[in-house]
Amino acid sequence: MDRIPIIKMAEFLLVSIQVDMHDKLALTLQDDLTNQIVKTHARGVLIDISSLEIVDSFIGRMLANIAAMSKVLDAATVVVGMRPAVAITLVELGMSLTGVRTALNVERGMDLLRDALGAPAAVDGVNANAQD
Amino acid sequence: MGQKTMMRLATILERHEKDVLNEWVDQQLAAVTRRRDLVNDQELREDSRRFLAIFRQAAQNESGADADWGEARAFLEDLSRTRARQGFSPSETATFVFSLKQPLFARLRQDLGRDPDALAGEMWSTSVALDRLGLYTTEVYQKSREEVIVHQQREMLELSTPVVQLWQGVLGLPLIGTLDSARTQVVMENLLRSIVETGATIAVIDITGVPTVDTLVAQHLLKTVAAARLMGADCIISGIRPQIAQTIVHLGVDLNAVTTKATLADAFAVALQRTGFAVTRAASARSASPAKH
Fold this sequence. Notes:
The complex is a heterodimer of chains A (132) and B (293). Chain A has helices spanning 23-40, 57-72, 84-92, 106-117, 121-131; strands at 6-9, 12-16, 44-48, 76-80, 101-103. With 132 residues, chain A is an alpha/beta fold. Chain A has a single domain (6-131), classed as STAS domain (Transcription Regulator spoIIAA). In chain A, helix 1 runs parallel beside helix 2 and helix 4 runs antiparallel to helix 5. The longest helix of chain A is centred in the N-terminal third of the chain and has 18 residues, at 23-40. The N and C termini of chain A lie far apart (43 Å). Residues 120-132 of chain A have low confidence and may be disordered. By secondary structure, chain B is an alpha/beta fold. Chain B has two domains: 2-155, Orthogonal Bundle (Globin-like); 164-286, Transcription Regulator spoIIAA (2-Layer Sandwich). Helix content of chain B is 67%, strand content 9%. Chain B has eleven helices and five strands. In chain B, strand 2, helix 7 and strand 3 (202-209) form a beta-alpha-beta unit. The termini of chain B are far apart. Classes of the chains: A alpha/beta (132), B alpha/beta (293). The A-B interface holds A 79-80, 82, 84, 86-88, 90-92, 96-98, 102-105, 108-109, 126-127, 130-131 and B 168-169, 185, 188-189, 192-193, 195-196, 199, 201, 223, 226-233, 257, 275-277.
């Protein structure tokens, strides 16, 4: 059975969704991710969905759920790289993922995570970003 | 029944085509609905001549099928479109076809006066054929007007939803006119595309040009804000006029989730602050301005 890889990077976990999500895969990811957060003591989770072209209400809810679960485990979650069409679809479905942080790309997402955790690197990140 | 009767009409037409044409044109020239300002006599005569010729041919081939009238329909379609653009009213356009009845019926009575049965049959089938063609002109007229409206709507849609870059990472959306769901869709798509292209983190939606904000418009605005947020960009709504602020509160619309500012300038200041920029007055200007006063 295929799984979505979860990569540990310092105190963060990176999840890059490169395939079309089906419901079973989403549930597996939910399981794996919560396990990993506990195991690695991760403080932040970054989910890259730039390859995701199709979303439905289930996937939308899954994203919201993952964020909520991470929060319970004290890890901030950022969803990055959402495509315009996906964003419009989610809004039309009435799911604006209010509890989830979002960013345009992975780089911005990492800045946001560092920011959220109050790491000193975050200040540099924001400034560097604003000046480029 | 159609075949035989229409054949008779066709032979009559063949014999008297010129007379019928003259009578018809004279009558059209004398009619009250005549629009001398839009079509001159020459053109009217030419249109009438061509239509009568096509009509005669169609009557000759008449077998009861719609296909026989294809050419007549095509001609009228053209005529109707031209006249719609020239500013004729639909009834004026249809009258062109209906007015052919009088000279035709007069001819029929002359030739078939002694045979009431044949006369009635002939008049009926002619009437039906002309009615159909007349109604067809109205239909085409309406369709061409609708095309004009749709075209204008599309043009307005494109004109009225620009996304401009105000600063590095700051987008501006000056909205002019009412927000319906079709426009919201366009605004949303434009905004999201621009966010991807420019990597903007803040978008200022200026609604100074939106005449009224009801619950539906507010909902559309909130949808746009939500979509932009999903792409990692925050939205500021600016240009809220006093009346609109009152309406929003009276309607119970919840705009708490969004930053709102009274003017575009205020919103821009907030945007600059959030992106880490500051505006300062240049030293030379600072020293120069007191001297002026």
